[in-house]
Amino acid sequence: MERTKNQQFFIYLGVIAVMIFTLAPIILLIIATLSSGQDLNSKTLHFLPSHWTLKNFTDIFTAGSNDASVPPFMQALKNSIIVSLSTTVLTLIIAILASYAISRFRFKGQNGLLMSTLGFRMVPEIALLIPLFVIFARFGAINNLSSLILIYTAFNLPFAIWMLQGFFRSIPKSMEESAYLDGVSSLGVLIRFILPISLSGIIATGIFVLLASWDEFMFASIFTSTYDSKTITVAISEFSKRGMVNFGMQITGGLIASLPPIVLALLFQKFIVSGLSEGSEKG
Amino acid sequence: MKKLLSLLFVLVLIFVTTGCSSGNGSDGNGKVTIRVISSDDFADFRKEAVKEFEKENPNIKVKLESVAYDQLHDKELASFNASGDAAYDVVDVDEMWTAEYADSAFIQPVTDKMTDTIKKELVPASLNITKYKKDYYGFPMFNDTYFFYYNVDMLKKAGYNAPPSTWDEFTEMSKKLQNKGITKGPASAWGWGASEGLVGYFGEFLGSFGGQFLDNNGKPVFNSKEGVQALQYMRDSIRKDKIIADASTGYNDRQILDAFKNGKTAFVSGWSFYWNELNADDSAVKGKVKVGLVPSANGSEHKTATGSMYLAVTPQSEHQDAAWKFIKFLGSKKIQKEQSLKAGALPVWQDLYKDPELKKNHPALEDMGKQLQYTISRPSLVGYNEFSKDFQILLQQVLLGKKDPKTALDNAVKKAKSASKTN
Amino acid sequence: MIKKIRPYVYLVPAFLVILCVTLAPILYSIFISFIDLTKNVHKLDNPNLWSFIGFTNYINVLKDSVFWNSLVKTIIFTVVTVGFEFILGLAIALILNEKFRARGLVRGLMLIPWALPTIVNAVLWKWFYDADHGTITGLLAHLGFTDGYSNILSHTTSALIAIMTADIWKNTAFVALILLAALQSLPKDIYEAAKVDGAKPFQRLFSITIPLLAPAILVALIIRTMEAFKAFDIVYIMTGGGPGGGTQLLSFLAYQQSMVFGNFSYGAALAQIMSIFTMIFAVIYIRIFYKDRG
Questions:
Q1: Using an 8 Å Cβ cutoff, are C121 and C207 in contact?
Q2: Which terminus of chain A has fewer CB atoms gathered within 10 Å of its CB, N or C?
């Protein structure tokens, strides 16, 4: 099992290559956010700025307070946090119930249901953009965070159900059966036995949903036009006026917008990987 | 079949209502609320103006939504096809969208409200952008065109005391500036990247060569002799005479401003907001810039392309009078003057260009006012956006030397004809 | 009786949400694709203004050279990005599955591109490719690949390559993540047996690892193909479909037709055609997968 020196060398070479591939753009991004507008706009190739500055960050955090044509970034950040957290919670609750039914009970149309759930994921979102806008507009539900939450929940449900029913299926039924004999209700079985065992899978699914709703742009851009409802992706795209892009703001906003998902991904790394490996076995 | 399907659709809608609708309350305290969507161009100023308006009209509440210009059209189009709360009372309209919006009755004609005095006192270029067929559709909010900026210092070094008056002079002066090494590369750069701006710049050359987009009957005629000459001149300036930067075919209006601002070029043609940028503290050409008339050819007028916007009322609006009141307020001389003082915008009223306070505040105001006498507008076609996309590609092919001007323009006129089909 | 109803009770919330927010709009969209809603109608929800025109919208789409151009670009985009993401992702997963120092940290850092929002990724790469001050533009010029600073995003082929590299960089991490997860759950004893048999590393890769990874590979490929085929954000931010339709992927074309040109019916018909394509992909993948298994 001992590896030769040669093998060792190639593995480390590979690891270094992977790290350069992964990190080089990120490092350039971080440097850019600390550069002045002049450095960003200079036509010479340089990797380090002529002088470091935090101006981009102070600009971002005060955005909207003195210039109304710049979307208030902190408000957008808050909106995005509300939307993606609510979407995640709502999606998980609904998907857990549905997955429980699919994985634990036998009923008519079970397979068809699972398949059609997957089918919904294949519909291009653009097909739903106008119909959903018309329907939501009819009920005055535009510029409304709840509307975005509902839409994102619907988009993420198929994937969440598909992942979760895989986890639930991998849990042996023996324990539940004795619980049933003790008179525990089916909801009780779900809460007391199934949820704790499949926690890592639920967290993994939750992270995927959270990242997907944090990421969404097309619907957010058409469904929101007030600062009270614009999400962070919309705000970043609006750091530009006609033909003029404020790269400093866009990139700095982008870095800040990336921090929550990156931190989450790093924190829950173990769950994501183990969750995925369990899920893909049975999925 | 149709009935059955409509029934089905209505059933689905009802299901959706009972299933998903979350109740939304409307305030019923007698106060009228109007919803306004506007580009972020003068967002700061408009926010202040709204406060002033609400103070004068305590019964009207204005909900102003500012969106990036790039997303304005798409959001408005979606809202026209909706009703209820998603519908706006007042929309911000770019001049090229007039035909599209008016033809589909997305915006309400206001011809009866535009009195003769108003029509006489407005800058004609401003008034014209709101016109489609025989009707007026809104009130202009600001004036903008491609102005011709030049670097006084550089021209002096080359021995010139005045900007070029004809395009031939422009070529000659550019060559001299380059030969003497006053500009390191080509004497000017233009925003001829494949975007809406390119159509505007073509308009500037078309107009100053004596051509027009549409004839008096609204028929596209820009493949005329003048049109071909104008496009040929644009191409030769890049490819043959090399007085215009080669990279212009990839530039937008921000990049050419940067080049001029850093003292790399001697001329630039662009919007009115350039003025403040060029005289900002970080500008290398601060205090050395003047605005002249766009050069011309064939002895025609020094015409340039407009790029202004106006506000209009939608037919869905349940508060048409309040909406128009708000638009009139923003367009009033008082607010237009404030807008010029605080936000540097060019007013829509002719006499404001002679206002001493404004003149003091904006040294180029008078020169800009002169240019505003000679304008050409991009053709407002029902299918303008579609036409523009195709036209940009054709223009670029010519500028890159892949197509000859005549073929490209003939082709573009065909596209314009099919884009001007009304419903 | 209650027992029979029970599973359905658990399904009700999911059913309601999907019905209202996915199924109803899909039906509506199919509906729009059969009526004439080109420019002249400003009330999508006013049945009095509807006129049915059968498959005319579909025929218009299929007769439009713009559609075929977009389809070709979308297929190129999908095949190239998914192909690179698969190869690079597999290589990264195999490397990170080995034992080396600071493995946990490296595995964590690898997740960053995946966690980066698509919009941010697009903004970042747009800046790298900027004609005047982009890092990549500058590098290419300094290394002599281009004659001075060139405007990468304003040439048809290079713009397509630019959006593809941006997509590949971000989503390789996703493929690697899924494959690494699968690698970690593979039974170790099979490898030991193969080593005893004297199988070389590459033989082991193709005869053992890849077949064992097949389910995970399928999952990664299906998800990535669907996403790539529907790619929108990256085009919207980086190129706006330009230059000259060079990066006009189908989703963007459908958006442009509906939201910019106002051809709602064309957009709806195009979206239905896209759905058919994704269904076909799914069937093909699943066929291949089951054939391999049985």
A1: no
A2: N
| Mean of pLDDT values over B400-416 | 94
Q: Is the pLDDT of residue B161 over 90?
A: yes
Residues in C closer than 8 angstroms to A97, CB to CB, are 10-11, 13-14
Burial code of A233-264, b = ≥16 C-beta within 10 A, e = fewer?
bbbbbbbbbbbbbbbbbbbbbbbbbbebbbeb
Q: Is the CB of residue B308 less than 8 Å from the CB of residue B126?
A: yes
Report yes or no: B167 and B233 within 8 Å, Cβ to Cβ: yes
Contact B211, B201 (CB under 8 A): no
Domain boundaries, chain B: 34-144+307-376, 147-305+381-419
B·C CB contacts under 8 A = 92
* DSSP label of C260: I
> In b/e form, how buried is each residue of C251-263, taking b as 16+ CB within 10 angstroms?
bbbbbbbbbbbbb
Looking at residue A163, its pLDDT comes to: 86
The HSE-up count of residue A106 (CA atoms within 13 Å, CB side) is: 0
Average pLDDT of span B244-248: 89
Those residues with Cβ within 8 angstroms of residue A75's Cβ, 6 or more apart along the chain or in another chain: A64, A227, A228, A230
CA distance A146 to chain B (A): 9
Give chains near B: 3+ CB pairs under 8 A.
A, C
Pick the CATH number of B34-144+307-376 from 3.40.190.10, 3.40.50.11460, 3.40.50.170, 3.40.50.1110: 3.40.190.10
- Please give the single-letter amino acid code of residue C160: L
Angle value at C-alpha A81, between C169 and A265, nearest 5 degrees: 40
- CATH fold for domain A73-282: MetI-like fold (1.10.3720)
Pseudo-torsion of CA B384, B387, B389, B390, nearest 10°?
Answer: -170
- Tens of pLDDT, residue by residue over C223-267, are 899 899 999 999 999 988 877 778 999 999 999 998 888 888 899
Mean pLDDT along residues B146-164 = 96
Give the Cα separation of B170 and B302 in Å (integer). Answer: 13
For chain A, domain boundaries: 5-53, 73-282
CATH 3.40.50.150 fits B147-305+381-419, yes or no: no
Residue A244: per-residue pLDDT: 61
Could you tell me which chains touch chain A, where touching means 3 or more CB pairs under 8 A? B, C
Of A195-204, B264-273, B405-414, least confident by mean pLDDT is A195-204
> What's the pLDDT tens digit per position in A100-149?
998 888 877 777 777 777 777 788 899 899 889 888 887 778 888 999 99
Binary contact (A141, B24; C-beta < 8 A):
yes
**A140-167 pLDDT tens trace:** 788 889 999 999 999 999 989 988 988 8
pLDDT of residue A14: 92
Any C CB within 8 A of B250 CB = yes
The predicted complex's ipTM stands at: 0.89
Rounded Cα–Cα distance for residues B70 and A241 (Å): 8
